């Protein structure tokens, strides 16, 4: 599709809408960070970056872009991993990071309404101070809520509490033509027409731009305890996970990790992990309203782990120990990144009872493709992260081996009835694997949905399934 090339006249209009010229970056004033996201090597600069502060500004810019056929890319913190916020057709980038206000805490309805630029860590801290709990817990705490909603981010607590979609009650959205709509609301039940709110969640900025979100809160659990459980091998650790899931004591989180990733994290953070002598670990978290309640929950799980060959059970029942363990877990991505010259990642998800098959396959794949692969993930919900490392490979060798490894991992996930992405999305970088894995009839339906929302295809083009 031919788009209008952004010019001085378009810039003048944006200056007119955005009275403060410091919130408009143009040409050489655009920072390099706006050309890419956190991991993907997908790179493209926008013609202009607009740091919006209101729904009205977003609406006016979208209406102008729609009328003039100018492509628009929404962006939050840029912490994505699949190129979803990269402006492939240049044009206008709408940066929502200054829309970062908490608008309302409704204690009667157990909801909080925020702008999209509020950071996950800011939201979590704000509600916890008031004895509430926002359960979604993606690894990147500096991501924006708008970005979390756009990718339906998951995180470590999904085993017990679910993912971002389960906590979005209502959205204010600016459509591609500039129209402002409200989807959902504070109601708990809603069977009124098509579930357009749920369609917006996970759409990666291709259907509309989120300008407000009303989120569900829970009462804050009074106590949390983690178990760090070393195993003699990765296979032993992973084969224990389905038994834990089947037990009646469901942890908040079930993470798996290998010793080599822990050593990377120790080096990156400059501090020791509580234990790094075993080959593999399960990290479990339990929460509740009393120590007795939690102990009753984890006692059964600890027995299961010991029966399956666990070497020990380390109980982390102080805030200092908790922070030490989970800070290391949160640093895994950056630690692996720092251990090589470049990496690409796979974010597959498989049924929970097949997670051991997938982990063992990835663990042994390096022998077949002759490239280093490190993995960790949310074993309790079947979402696994595999990182393919370039090290000192030439560009030609890297492209060949990386593609080979990805093809095999995604192929295995399909074989195990899994999906391309559990929480990072598809964006630009992973769409070829989505197209290979999805029924063409469903791609056609998605294309129809995109056309209904955005007939001119100006909003975040070339993402998810679009050529």
The best one-word shape is globular
Helix share, percent = 25-40%
Specify the CATH class of one domain. Answer: Alpha Beta
Tell me the total number of β-strands: 18
Strand content: 15-25%
Q: Quick check: average pLDDT?
A: 95
The count of helical stretches stands at: 15
Q: Give the end-to-end Cα distance, rounded to a whole number of Å.
A: 10 Å
Q: Give the structural class.
A: alpha+beta
Quaternary arrangement of the chains shown? single chain
CATH architecture of one domain: 2-Layer Sandwich
According to CATH, the fold-level topology of one domain is Uridine Diphospho-n-acetylenolpyruvylglucosamine Reductase, domain 3
* Uncertain segments: none
Biggest beta-sheet profile? 5 strands, antiparallel
- Rg from Cα: 23 Å
Strand order, main sheet: write it out: 5-6-10-8-9
């Amino acid at each position: 599709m031919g788009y209008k090339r952004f010019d001085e006249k378009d810039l003048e209009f944006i200056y007119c809408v955005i009275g403060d010229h410091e919130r408009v970056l143009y040409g050489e004033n655009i920072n390099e960070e706006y050309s890419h996201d956190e991991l993907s090597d997908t790179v493209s600069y926008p013609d202009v970056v607009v740091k919006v502060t209101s729904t009205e500004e977003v609406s006016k810019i979208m209406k102008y872009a729609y009328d003039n056929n100018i492509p628009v890319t929404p962006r939050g913190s840029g912490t994505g991993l699949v190129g979803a916020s990269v402006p492939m057709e240049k044009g206008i980038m709408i940066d929502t990071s200054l829309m970062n206000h908490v608008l309302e805490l409704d204690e009667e309805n157990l909801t909080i309404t925020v702008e999209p630029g509020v950071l996950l860590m800011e939201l979590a801290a704000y509600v916890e101070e008031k004895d509430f709990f926002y359960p979604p817990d993606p690894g990147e705490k500096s991501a924006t809520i708008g970005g979390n909603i756009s990718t339906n981010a998951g995180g470590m607590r999904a085993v017990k509490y679910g993912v971002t979609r389960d906590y979005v009650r209502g959205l204010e959205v600016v459509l591609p033509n500039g129209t402002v709509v409200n989807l959902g609301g504070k109601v708990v039940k809603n069977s009124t027409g098509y579930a357009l709110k749920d369609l917006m969640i996970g759409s990666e900025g291709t259907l509309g731009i989120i300008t407000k979100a009303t989120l569900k809160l829970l009462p804050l659990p009074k106590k949390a305890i983690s178990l760090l459980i070393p195993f003699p091998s990765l296979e032993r650790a992973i084969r224990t996970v389905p038994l834990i899931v089947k037990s009646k004591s469901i942890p908040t989180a079930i993470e798996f990790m290998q010793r080599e990733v822990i050593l990377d994290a120790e080096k990156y953070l400059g501090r020791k992990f509580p234990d790094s002598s075993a080959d593999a670990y399960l990290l479990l978290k339990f929460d509740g309203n009393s120590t007795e309640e939690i102990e009753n929950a984890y006692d059964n799980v600890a027995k299961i782990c010991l029966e399956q060959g666990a070497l020990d059970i380390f109980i982390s029942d102080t805030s200092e120990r908790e922070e030490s363990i989970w800070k290391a877990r949160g640093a895994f991505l950056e630690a692996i990144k720092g251990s090589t010259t470049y990496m690409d990642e796979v974010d597959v998800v498989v049924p929970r009872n097949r997670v051991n098959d997938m982990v063992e396959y990835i663990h042994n794949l390096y022998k077949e493709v002759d490239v280093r692969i490190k993995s960790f993930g949310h074993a309790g919900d079947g979402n696994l992260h595999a990182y393919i490392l370039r090290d000192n490979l030439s560009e030609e060798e890297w492209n060949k081996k990386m593609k080979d490894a990805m093809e095999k991992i995604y192929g295995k996930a399909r074989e195990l009835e899994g999906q391309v992405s559990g929480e990072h999305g598809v964006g630009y970088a992973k769409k070829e694997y989505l197209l290979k894995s999805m029924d063409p009839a469903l791609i056609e339906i998605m294309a129809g949905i995109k056309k209904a929302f955005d007939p001119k295809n100006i909003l975040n083009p070339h993402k998810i399934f679009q050529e």
